[in-house]
Amino acid sequence: MFSDRKAIDQVSGWLTLYDDGFVDRTWTGPPQFKFMSDTVPPHHHFIDGVATHDLSIDTNTNLRVRIYLPELPDSTQKLPIILHFHGGGFCISQADWFMYYNFYMRLAREAKAIVVSTYLRLAPECRLPAAINDGYSTLLWLQDLENRKTHQSLLSSNGDFSRIFLLGDSTGGNIVHQVAKKSAGENMGVAGAILIHPGFLRSVRSKSELENPESPFLTLDMLDKFLKLGLPEGSTKDHQITCPMAEPLEGLDLPPYLVCVAEQDLMIATEVEFYEAMKKSGNNVKLLVSPEVGHSFYLNKIAIDVDPVTSKQTHKLIQEITHFIRNH
Questions:
Q1: Residue 27 contacts by C-beta under 8 Å, 6 or more apart in sequence?
Q2: How many angstroms separate the CA atoms of 130 and 124, rounded?
Q3: Phi, psi (degrees; rounded to nearest 5) at 208
Q4: What superfamily would CATH give domain 39-326?
Q5: Predicted confidence band at 52 (pLDDT cuts at 50, 70, 90)?
Q6: What residue spans define the domains of the chain?
Q7: What is the DSSP string of 14-36?
Q8: How far is residue 116 CA from its own chain's centroid?
Q9: Tens of pLDDT along 265-292?
Q10: Do residues 200 and 270 lie in contact, with contact meaning Cβ atoms separated by under 8 Å?
Q11: The whole model's pTM is what?
């Protein structure tokens, strides 16, 4: 009976786990932040220059994507494709949450790119590598569109399949790196990889984990519990998915990388460690540091609206991503 269900753990207001395995993702934190996890229905008409669509791309696995299509005066123009993987510690969030909608509407419009955001399976019901497989399956679907094995008018007519950019927020950045490795050398049109505040960690606390401030977007509790629920059973944070800088990075035939970090992020020390390891291994990698802000600052509409620093750094982040895309 439902009345006999007992909560056995909670993760920083984002997730409650029950003794029968049920997972409740109802937001229980500060009420002023709840709207950022509200879902936004798709709109096929253009709002602020962008239309959105939800598509099923594999009926067998129920894999779906959300598409952000910018309005263009020239209907013959082919647009780069941003393949987006959302964050959430592998355990929460969806592609249609307001926090993503608000940012990726703006990015699609300003970068003049089509954003394809995958609805990833979530842990603990579906542990890794489920979300990685979903991301790679979406890339394969884009290749099927290019090769005309299937057709989707929004993308087939408007997308440039030779310029696909993998982009991930937080643990979505981990998925970007894994999909980039999986597709390396396969001529799948991946022109670049953009990792925004990736969830790279070690089992031992880093200096930034010990010293930087926590926020509703990232706490030490979230780092520990989400990854325990998301990683393959029995794994630690030293697993290659969360600690890729501990494995060889030479000779992987990776595309150019843009690694974006925030000065006050709990994970900046290990994120920069990854960047340094990529650079030392001879990979084409660029680092963007956003000063005076924390993890996923650009998804926090409240801060963007009221804090000039957050607003300025969000604008700069979009500029740098746009510049990266236009130059690759």
A1: 13, 14, 33, 34, 37
A2: 10
A3: -70, -35
A4: Alpha/Beta hydrolase fold, catalytic domain (3.40.50.1820)
A5: very high
A6: 39-326
A7: TEEEETTS-EE----S-GGGGGG
A8: 11
A9: 999 999 999 999 999 999 999 999 999 9
A10: yes
A11: 0.97
